[in-house]
Amino acid sequence: MAQSEPNRTDGTEHSTKGAYVTGGEFTRDTNYIEDRVVADAAAVRAAPVEPHSKIGDPRMAGLTEGAQAWPVEPGRYRLVAARACPWAHRSIIIRRLLGLEEALSLATPGPVHDVRSWTFDLNPDGRDPVLGTERLQEHYFKRFPDYPRGITVPAIVDVPSGELVTNNYPQLTFDLSTQWTAFHREGAPDLVPAALADEMLPVIERIFTEVNNGVYRAGFAGSQRAYELAYARLFDALDWLEERLADRRYLMGDAVTEADVRLFTTLVRFDAVYHGHFKCNRNKLTEMPVLWAYARDLFQTPGFGDTVDFDQIKRHYYVVHEDINPTQVVPAGPDLENWLSDHGRESLGGKPFGDGTAPGPVAEEERPPGANPLYRD
């Protein structure tokens, strides 16, 4: 797919230069707006205060200090989730697996933004058709006029007021599984089985710390030492995953859980972006036999690969990160057809949705517009 020249912001007040690489080790700001959308707001408000968690917790009964509870109401909220962003992508996958499309609408900002905000530039008039706004920033400022942090996705917006509800992505997806159950589709999988929570959360924490965030720690390192330490930690974790998945089809056993969703969004970006752009180049994903087969298995599972837009993924990283790609040239490769090759993981048994069923086809209006071999003509 031919790419147009990027809308350059370098040298302007809206440039992202200096926003990502600041020197030494990259440290992610994990302070988010920790409000929750819950089934029983009164009960959640009455529960004891919960500690902050960088990965979230599906067992969370209450709120963190200062957070608010909003009631689950179908049609009231809009999920703003850019397809390019791995943190947002996981919410798109989980919404689809659970069948929440009718209850929670989806807004997909374009892949390229400046230092200010994600924008709704994919729409013909540059405005989201439901929210009526050009920038996600407008909804942050509607609620917090002096909001001092980054404008991040995914985010949930209260449509009637136009106010941002939460951008706390670690808890947001767990709440889609545990708080929105009245609106799950028939046959929706259990992505956070209660019996597996104690084992699953440490796996998720290691994946977040060493893999999901590990690629960024390498890519945004501001010194050689910080980069080399990040590189070593990342590939130690990938080797651990290669071993863990050698004799089990999914991270927690015979069925997909949220742990698999969180790992998939990093793996699907690995060769297209992280291997080169973030210098995570000990080897490609395609050169790790177990992880590559596992990633293809998920990609070919309804709800996973059918949400991927490789054009948006590449355009986001290579254009937005002026610190590490000042030319903003977007690579043409890699070839994508191998994502559809046989993976052989069926031999390990299990069923992706456990006792549930696969989601139906992606609605035409939610089909990713960019490169994806599942949608080739």
Please characterize this protein's 3D structure.
It is a single chain. This protein has 377 residues and is mainly α. 31% of the residues lie in helices and 6% in strands. The chain contains ten helices and six strands. The strands form two sheets. The chain has a four-stranded mixed beta sheet with strand order 4-3-5-6, sandwiched between helices. A two-stranded parallel sheet has the order 1-2. Helix 5 (197-212) runs antiparallel to helix 7 (224-244). The radius of gyration is 20 Å and the shape is globular. The protein starts with 35 loop residues before the first strand and ends in a 57-residue tail after the last helix. The mean pLDDT is 93.
- Amino- and carboxy-terminal Cα gap: 14 Å
Q: What is the number of helices? A: 10
User: Strand count, sense and closure of the main sheet?
Assistant: 4 strands, mixed
User: What portion of residues is helical?
Assistant: 25-40%
Number of strands: 6
- Residue runs with pLDDT of under 50 for 5 or more positions: none
Strand content: 5-15%
Strand order of the largest sheet: 4-3-5-6
- Please give the radius of gyration in angstroms: 20 Å
Whole-number mean pLDDT: 93
Q: Would you list the SSEs in sequence order as H and E?
A: EHEEHEHEEHHHHHHH
Structural class: mainly alpha
The gross shape turns out to be globular
